[in-house]
Design brief:
Shape: rod-shaped
Number of helices: 5
Structural class: mainly alpha
Order of helices and strands: HHHHH
Radius of gyration: 35 Å
Largest sheet: none
Length: about 140
């Protein structure tokens, strides 16, 4: 009977020791992960700060300035306007949108790249911009 009691006492002592050691190891791992997480968060913040100014400069250099109808612009009184509706694919609505962005003549339209025209129109899928520019170049003479 003493042997069984000693065996059970040893079993319980071993189990408690294992549990305490495992708990201490787990706490140590959690602390290590927390410090690594804090380090990585700081590193991400520093990288974001470094890349934000560059990305804003890049965007401003690669994207043309877009003037929308909502922005105020000086009103020109002697603007020569071509009938942009002579270009196949431009109707009254599209002509108004082009005029609102400052495009009044065939020459104005012919000077743009397809990307610039798409940026001004804001909906590149509906209009074949390269074709419009080619027609404007022919009509501009």
């Amino acid at each position: 009977m003493k042997a069984i009691g000693a065996f059970l006492l040893g079993l319980i002592t071993g189990w408690l020791t294992k549990t305490v050691v495992a708990d201490a190891d787990l706490r140590q791992r959690i602390q290590a992960f927390a410090s690594a997480n804090a380090f990585l968060k700081d590193r991400i913040r520093s990288l974001e700060v470094q890349t934000k100014p560059k990305s804003l400069e890049t965007k401003s250099l690669t994207q043309p300035a877009i003037q929308t109808a909502n922005q105020s612009r000086p009103i020109a009184t002697n603007i020569r306007k071509d009938d942009l509706k002579l270009i196949k694919g431009i109707g009254p609505t599209l002509e108004k949108r082009l005029n609102d962005t400052g495009l009044y003549t065939f020459a104005d339209l012919a000077r743009l790249t397809p990307e610039e025209l798409e940026a001004r129109l804001g909906n590149p899928r509906r209009v074949a911009t390269a074709d419009l520019i080619e027609q404007a170049k022919e009509l501009a003479g």
